[in-house]
Automatic annotation (TrEMBL):
Top-rank taxon, per record: Bacteria
UniProt-listed Pfam families: AA_permease_2
The keyword Membrane belongs to this UniProt entry's keyword annotation: yes
Name the UniProt record assigns to this protein: Amino acid permease
Alphabetic keyword roster: Cell membrane, Membrane, Transmembrane, Transmembrane helix
Cellular component aspect of the GO annotation: plasma membrane
Molecular functions (GO terms): transmembrane transporter activity
């Protein structure tokens, strides 16, 4: 243990997680509540059942290069911190700091509060709750998963693996049963084979663009690379398998939905999966209950995943002297970054009671997407550096990086169009508040070395 770590009272986090945990984190983070609404949004953008299926298929395939990028970066730097580490190793400590600064104050705790409130709302299907009761339920959920991931990374990893398996099972059942009741003519009837080819192509592009949010989150395991056994093997394999699993689930769900509902019904519905389930004779009369249970399991998996991996970025920053020292503390018994986990959950609980503030922080999405865009670009900077020795090298490197950056660029553009002024203001706020803090900590680091 270094003197620096002894001074702040830390231990090192241990490598206790295997391939299953990598997949569970990736799939658990990606397959969230978004798919329950995005199916209808993509249907509206694509305009036909065939293009709807193609949009999810192509949309998933073009997201795989992003996982190739993460796999190479994770194999080169198998340590906790994810994007923060990649920016730092690429030679930009200020950008690395801003990455973590934005994550802590603007994106990570809000995601926890939003998901906890979503679960509480879905539970309301069985036991009606509203107002303060609903918020207290959300708080209890955050506290439960905080304790799970505080007490042991191994038990937390096992729980994440189990809940991810449970969230996949309902999808598989609905897809499996739904396929038996597909109506071929319904599946094909909306396909615009005749007419303007350009219109069909434009609709396909619109559909692909609408799927991109559904595939976001597959790089989550990179934040815990330092706790993965044999990361040079398990990280690339896990990230690529995550992409394949998510793609298979989404395409299967889309095929089943397109054979059970017209594209007009899908586009018009606010709950397309519930409507789809109602068309399956075996579970039709219980569709609302089935989908409510399915939604609870799905969002619980995402909430658990976020509480597990997100605090690792502040832990990594604190180890480098770029965040409050206490965030680098590892519990002597549980061997988890307990302080970082507790503080992040505490901020999330505050946001549960400050929904207007939580909504405001949503405008930082543009800045978060810019982080992702630049992360893929770090490979171009790193490739000739002596410290860059990845054990996994992606195929067709520059093509993969280009596709990953292009797909993230489409999200950046759509987010900018949605709220251009708030997005720009948030970017300015991030830099104006973050850089002075960064230089303050760097000054302290230099003084400590003298």
């Amino acid at each position: 243990m270094s003197n620096k770590n002894q001074e702040v009272g830390t231990n090192e986090l241990k490598r206790k997680l295997g391939l299953g945990a990598v997949i569970a984190l990736g799939v658990g983070t990606t397959v969230g509540s978004g798919i329950f609404s995005s199916l209808g949004e993509v249907a509206g953008a694509a305009g036909s059942s065939m293009l709807l299926v193609l949009a999810f298929l192509i949309g998933g395939l073009v997201q795989i290069p992003a996982n190739f990028c993460y796999a190479e970066l994770a194999s080169a730097f198998p340590e906790d911190g994810g994007q923060y580490v990649y920016f730092k190793e690429a030679g930009s400590r200020p950008l690395a700091f801003l990455c973590g600064w934005i994550s802590f104050w603007a994106t990570d705790p809000p995601s926890i509060s939003i998901m906890a409130l979503a679960i509480a709302n879905y539970l309301g299907f069985f036991v009606p709750t509203e107002g303060i009761v609903l918020r207290m339920v959300a708080v209890v959920l955050v506290l439960i998963f905080m304790v799970v991931h505080l007490r042991s990374v191994e038990s937390g990893g096992r729980f994440q693996t189990v809940i991810t398996a449970l969230k996949i099972i309902p999808f598989v059942l609905i897809i499996g049963m739904g396929i038996f009741f597909i109506k071929g003519e319904l599946f094909l009837s909306a396909t615009p084979m005749a007419g303007a080819a350009a219109t069909g192509f434009t609709a396909l592009l619109a559909g692909i663009s609408a799927t991109t949010w559904s595939f976001d989150g597959m790089g989550a395991p990179c934040y815990m690379s330092g706790e993965i056994r044999e990361p040079e093997k398990n990280m690339p394999k896990g990230l690529i398998l995550t992409a394949i699993i998510v793609l298979t689930l989404y395409v299967g769900l889309t095929v089943a939905a397109s054979g059970l509902l017209s594209v007009e019904e899908l586009a018009a519905s606010e709950a397309p999966i519930a409507l789809m389930a109602s068309k399956i004779p075996v579970i039709g009369s219980y569709a609302g209950t089935v989908v409510a249970i399915m939604a609870i399991i799905v969002v619980v998996g995402s909430l658990s995943s976020c509480i597990m991996f997100q605090p690792r970025i502040e832990y990594a920053m604190a180890k480098d002297g770029l965040f409050f020292k206490s965030f680098a503390k590892v519990h002597p018994k549980y061997e988890t970054p307990y302080f970082s986990i507790i503080v992040q959950c505490a901020v999330a609980i505050i946001l549960i009671f400050a929904t207007s503030l939580s909504d405001l922080l949503g405008y930082f999405t543009l800045v978060a997407l810019l982080k992702n865009f630049l992360t893929f670009g770090t490979i171009i900077v790193l490739r000739n550096k002596p410290n860059y020795k990845p054990t996994y090298r992606m195929p067709a490197r520059f093509l993969m990086i280009g596709i990953a950056m292009f797909m993230t660029g489409t999200l950046i553009w759509s987010t900018f169009v949605w709220a251009p002024i708030p997005g720009i203001i948030c970017a300015i706020v991030a830099v104006v508040t973050g850089l002075p803090v960064y230089y303050f900590w760097e000054k302290k680091n230099k003084e400590a070395k003298q």
